[in-house]
Amino acid sequence: MRRWFAKSLKRKLSLIILLAVVLPLLSMGTVSYRIATSVTEDKAKQAGMNTLKQITDKLDFVIQDVENMSIFLIGQKDIQTYLSNTEGDVNSYSLIVGTLWNLSYSKKYISNITITPKNGNPVLYTTTITNSGLNPLLQQYESVYKSTTKWWSPLYVNQTTDGPKRVITLVRPIRDVSTFRTIGTLAFSLDQAEIEHYLTDAGWESSGFVMLTDQYNQIIAGGEPGWLARKVGDVFPNLDKLGETNGVLNVPRGELPHTVLYNSMPRLGWKLVGFIPTEIYQKQNGYVLTVTAVTIVIALMLAMGLVLYFLQWVTKPLTRLTKSLKDLNPDEAIPTYEVKSADEVGLLVHSYNKLSERIGRLKDQVQQNEAKKKEADIMALQAQINPHFLYNTLSSIHWIALMNKDRQIAEMIGALSDFLRFSLNKGEEFCSVQQEISHAQNYAYIQAMRFPDQFEIEFFIVPEMLQTTMLKLLLQPLIENSLIHGIQKKKAKGHVYVHGELRDNQMKFVVEDTGIGMDEAKLRDIHGQLVAANQQLGMLTEVAKEAKLPVTSYGLINVHRRLLLHYGLGSGLVVESTLGMGTRISFSIPLGTGELTT
Fold first, then answer.
1. What is the band of 395 on the pLDDT scale with cuts at 50, 70, 90?
2. Neighbours of 466 (CB within 10 A)
3. E strands, 270-423, where?
4. Which of 45, 153, 437, 571 is deepest in the core (most CB within 10 A)?
5. Whole-angstrom distance, CA of residue 380 vs CA of residue 510
6. What ranges in 404-519 are assigned the alpha helix state H?
7. H helix intervals, 451-501
8. In angstroms, rounded to a whole number, what is the distance separating the alpha carbons of residues 462 and 464?
9. Around Cβ 488, how many Cβ atoms within 10 Å?
10. 238 pLDDT band (50/70/90 cuts)?
11. How many CA atoms lie within 13 Å of 89's alpha carbon, on the beta-carbon side?
12. pTM (2 d.p.)
């Protein structure tokens, strides 16, 4: 297959152009499909969340309305009188019951209003209840509802003359407005069926559903009838604990995955939970995928047709020229060929005809030029490896820049010359701290010229240690690491700080940057490489020597190995980093040590 392509420029160009067309089309189609599916899903979730918020507003209105009516009844003069007097008054009883009836029938969601006096007077109510499910709940949650001014009960069933009624009840103590002693209890019962209508009439997805849970995480509306009054965690184990306010979850229900949206009612701690089968927007995604695939196929067919026509048109003259030159004898004169076009190919043939007559005369000259070129290349290579030649050349450039009053170039060339001179340093391995700092500053200056306004570097070195001897070329690789892997990958301007201080008869150096930092995985990888360097030097146990990690940070590892070789195990690099905050690399060496540690 490779030979088949190699023998034809047309085939190679066809493959390259088709790949150049096909790959972007496929990439664009893939990206478009993913964006479309993401938008479809986001819109479905946003619409669902808006629906939940609308239901929440309606339920909040109902709750607020009931609480306001309860406050009105508690302070109503006739009710206060009826609950305060031990002797029942038939007229007051009838008047109060009439008021309660008016309130109850004016609101469809009110199932019953009950006022229970503590003075033994008859109970006031709007619906005849033969068996109330509230009393057991009051005994169960006695400590809760007595410790607050209002308490909403879980879902329970009242047996009435009209049949069983599921209700949620607001229970409030009624206190005397003068003495503040408790004189009765007010219970506002909401009809669960009416609350259910708010959920079913909200326009939710037909294949999904919405359910309402109370502060005890029990289902009080929505879903299947068998779920009512059960814990959410018993029906949906994955929804045992929802967030405080609202959110989106993906959970399985049966064999189908569902998207779950929830929104809280802070007033009561109730939550609206909506279920949307993911197949709803997956069907839409399938339609988008089909349209995208058809579009890409049509575009590919058009592109392939145009590419083949274009290549045939371009390569046809070249094919004719190739056939004519195929059997040409190089020792004979090169013949001329007819020019049939004025485009680039025609100009190429025309130029070829003009050059053919000069090839013989230029043959000897080309050979001589090639020999001279090789000799010049050898001399240039020899000059490049001669430090004195390099220094002299840099010095000449430095003076030319000064003569041309280009101070910036002169300073950069001077810094480069000092940088190279220190790096060679006649083969010596040690230098003073002052020289090491100057070398690092020269490097930083050159980088600052290359990348203006990308970083700032500051040196904080204790003056007492400037003349102390240390191993050379330790700080510059660390600064380079900070710039390349930390600062240059950051959009904003970065900072590098180099610290040097005396501590416990040692010199401690720190190179700290404000770059992108490293995640935990990369930091563990760096630490593993430092440990592997220790193993290679035979400084750890036999068990640890079995670990082998690939080296990805050669600059850091080389500095680490040199420190271990010259100063011992306690002088290796310490690397600390926080993703998004920066990296801190430090090492300590004995004060004034210029010899190998044994």
1. low
2. 14
3. 270-277
4. 153
5. 41
6. 407-424, 433-450, 475-482
7. 475-482
8. 6
9. 15
10. confident
11. 12
12. 0.48
